[in-house]
Design brief:
With 163 residues, the chain is mostly helical. 34% of the residues lie in helices and 6% in strands.
Length: 163
């Protein structure tokens, strides 16, 4: 079981095992939380912080499912910045493990984003990311500094941390 990520339902796919998905969401959370300033950016960071925390094998998504707004070009640029930060290993010193294979996965994800043109998606299954997330979800973990999200700090959750 694993997860599939794409630009759109008929596009090229990136397949990650469940463990690979956990690592993907860990490094994307580390990269997304510090610069997230707007409600859309904060919701994206929370998407990564809470990702793959329940229903393992059902956390993949297509980029066209995200709730892009009229600011889709800037939102896509933010996502590209987050991937670039993850590729530069931002925050990886806080991981309890070394993710040797994630760079290739991130590069593939960056290619998906580069080939994707977002359009506003008011009927996204993820809701309206123009609305600010709950303040409690944006609280930083005292140990890791990332958003605690709905389920608590993902880096403190030993159940999802690779061994």
């Amino acid at each position: 079981m694993g997860n599939s990520f794409g630009g759109a339902k008929d596009s090229r796919r990136l397949y990650l095992s469940n463990g690979g998905t956990d690592v993907f969401f860990d490094v994307m959370t580390l990269a997304a939380c510090p610069p997230a300033g707007t409600p859309w950016q904060q919701n994206l960071a929370l998407h990564f912080a809470d990702g793959h925390r329940h229903s393992r094998g059902f956390s993949g998504y297509d980029l066209d499912e995200l709730p892009w707004t009229a600011e889709a070009t800037a939102e896509r640029a933010f996502l590209q910045t987050v991937v670039a930060a993850a590729l530069s290993r931002r925050g990886w010193g806080q991981l309890a493990y070394d993710p040797p294979h994630i760079a290739g996965m991130l590069s593939s994800y960056a290619e998906l984003i580069a080939g994707f043109t977002p359009v506003p998606n008011p009927s996204s299954p993820y809701g309206d990311w123009q609305l600010s997330p709950a303040a409690a979800e944006l609280e930083p973990c005292v140990k890791h500094g990332i958003f605690v999200g709905e389920f608590g700090c993902r880096l403190c959750d030993t159940w999802i941390q690779p061994v």
